[in-house]
Amino acid sequence: MTMRSSLAFSAVLLLAAAGCSSAGKFPVEIPDPNTPEAIATAASLTGTAWEPVRIHEQTGASIVSIEVHAGTAYVLDSANTVHSIDLATGTHRWVLFLDRTPTRPMLVGKDRVGFLARAHLTVCATTTGTRLLDRDLDFTPSAGGGLTLDTLYTASWGDSYRLRTVSLYDGWPGWYHAAGGPVTASPLVIGSGADQMVYVAAQDGSVMALEARPATADVPGNVAWSYRTLGKNAANLAHDDQTVFVASEDRALYALNRLVGSVSWKWFSDQPLTHAPAVAATRVYQPIPGAVVAIDKATGDTVYTFTGGQRYLTTVSGHDLFECEDGQIAVLNAGNGVEIARVRSPLLDIVASNEDGEGLVFSCGKNLYLLK
Known about the structure:
CATH class of the domain at 1-69 and 281-372: Mainly Beta
CATH architecture of the domain at 1-69 and 281-372: Beta Barrel
Structural class: mainly beta
Largest sheet: 5 strands, mixed
Oligomer: single chain
Shape: globular
């Protein structure tokens, strides 16, 4: 997810802090603030509690996308350069230069970061940026994937629709498991040790959990459990430590216990669900046509519906932030969904700074900021 414009975001937070509820007076138009003076002005407007801290400045290309994992921001710029940045200290850990432009989102695991450029895979170590693998695969993945220390789990079609494994030691294909239909949802790898499993959803309605055996294993991982929805499962899966969330075209969002596959709850829409939910600490945010619905993660009950929302971004100090269908950013009271403020800027986009979907990191052109 890319991020931009500190002044625009500071204006949003300033309006929110003032308790402004006249959403009809918005959006506030914010010009491009890509200057040191604008950054300083934003900090002074919002005070030290909302000071944007420049944690990275690179005089090269513009920032294209950012993924945050375990306190580290992995930043891809338009020159196909990857930067690893410690969010706590702002330390620039390493830089990796890619030979090809990635065609899928970054694959970020505990120990490895991967980049798919059609059928080409590049993998490096998360701690050092050391390039571990850089080669063409013998198939073109139909989805993103999940990484462990030694294996990529992805999918392919044209060969009976398979969950595929690739060894990160040499790039050779390993075991595979046939799916009942096309797999366009990125497989997930969750857990560690004996509880580590890979999850795959297919367009025939199936959802499976398999043992996350390495690609070098002689036989595929055993199927721990399987479940079938009543429609296609084309959207990416989402998860927390205990639950896998499946948005299905049968109009239901399923919360499945990740260890045994039992249904914790179902939430129903009046439209097919074609986009993955966003998972935060206590909520699940499900996009539907024309809106985003905030759902209680424990019960599956609707908390509120934000009409005009397109994508949940993050939660900051009791405020839910959304990207709207027209590109504006809306700030809502997280408790009741009442809109507080809205802003329009061509340079504003946001990503959460932790795995609970809270806090934020954002970019302004070639610079990366952390809001403290």
